[in-house]
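Narrative of activities, Objective 1.

The group set out to show that a structural description can be obtained from nothing but a protein's sequence at a throughput compatible with the screening campaign. Below is one input-output pair from the validation batch, recorded exactly as produced.
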Amino acid sequence: MRMATWLRRFTAARPPARSVKPPPPGAEPVRRASRERNLFEAAAAHVAASVEGDEQALEAASARVAPEALMFGISELARRAVVVLAQERGVPPRAVARSLLGLPEG
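Output recorded for this entry:
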């Protein structure tokens, strides 16, 4: 079957799109904040469980959000930690990051 024929049949067989009511004013930021909180809570729990060697907590934190979201949260946590440590030590963030990973100054 040619692709154009298949595409016509597929689109003809699809039900019409449903009408979706827009969220009430002020509802979207609340939902977004809730998602972000859950993402960052999962990242914090994951990192803490990893440091403590708590496999059950690590698995629970990993199951709370999608793997890509968890990696974003962990990266954001690392970025924020490096910034704070750099400010406290009065050194550039690159020096802190390299130091934390045991890399020579470069």
